[in-house]
Design goal:
The protein is of the alpha+beta class. The protein contains one helix and ten strands.
């Protein structure tokens, strides 16, 4: 019984001790909370400042690297651009020169719908536009200026004409519908006998007389993918 009373008295004294501790340490507890809050705020602010400085540092490093790449690559890109423009200009000049040479060696045909002389060099024939192929060449009707009926009136011809010693080189169309083209016969017309002689057949819009060696004519053609050469002997 005495032990039980001592236990009760001891427990009450312990609770009383805790109460005293809480009363006396409460001001220090609030101060500790304020100190910890200040420390937390200072840490967050310092961390934000450090992150901002790191971001600014990375930004300067990236801009520096980009400037180095631009400075090093700019002369290469500029040189490549100048070379590309120069090569394009050279090939354009060569193309214009070849076009002039070809146009000077070939006799053009009138492109309007009225009858006109074939050319200043050919005063026997006249041409009239028959049909214009969409996105393609044109075909023409031909006739003799002197009014004599000619075998030329039964056919249609392209705009490529060459004058030879033996006669006039013409491009006779075997069809006038775009789905059947290209299908041409390269013919030699003899005005004295009014005879039209087929020399060779070419299924290509781009062809020209490449050269002549005695009685042999050389024709070259190119269809955009492949090309070839045809040699024809004049009888």
């Amino acid at each position: 019984m005495l032990g039980f009373l001592l236990l009760i008295i001891g427990e009450r004294n312990l609770n009383f001790f805790h109460l005293l501790v809480c009363i006396f340490l409460k001001p220090f507890q609030q101060s500790a909370v304020l100190v910890l809050r200040d420390i937390h705020f200072t840490f967050v602010l310092a961390l934000a400042i450090v992150m901002n400085k790191l971001q600014l540092l990375f930004h300067h490093i990236f801009r520096f690297i980009w400037n180095i790449i631009f400075v090093v690559s700019y002369p290469v890109l500029a040189t490549f651009g100048l070379l590309f423009v120069g090569v394009t200009y050279v090939f354009s000049g060569i193309s214009r020169l070849l076009t002039k040479l070809r146009s000077s060696s070939e006799t053009p045909i009138p492109t309007n719908s009225s009858w006109e002389p074939l050319s200043d060099q050919v005063n026997l024939l006249e041409a009239k536009l028959y049909k214009q192929i969409m996105f393609g060449p044109s075909c023409f009707q031909l006739r003799r200026i002197d009014g004599i009926p000619s075998v030329l009136e039964d056919h249609y011809f392209g705009n490529k004409v060459r004058i030879l010693v033996e006669g006039i080189l013409l491009e006779k169309w075997n069809a006038t519908e775009s789905k059947d083209l290209p299908d041409f016969d390269i013919c030699l017309y003899d005005p004295d006998t009014d005879k039209l002689t087929p020399l060779t057949n070419i299924k290509c819009f781009d062809w020209h007389l490449a050269g002549r060696e005695e009685n042999n004519l050389s024709f070259k053609w190119f269809d955009g993918i492949q090309g070839g050469e045809v040699n024809v002997a004049l009888s």
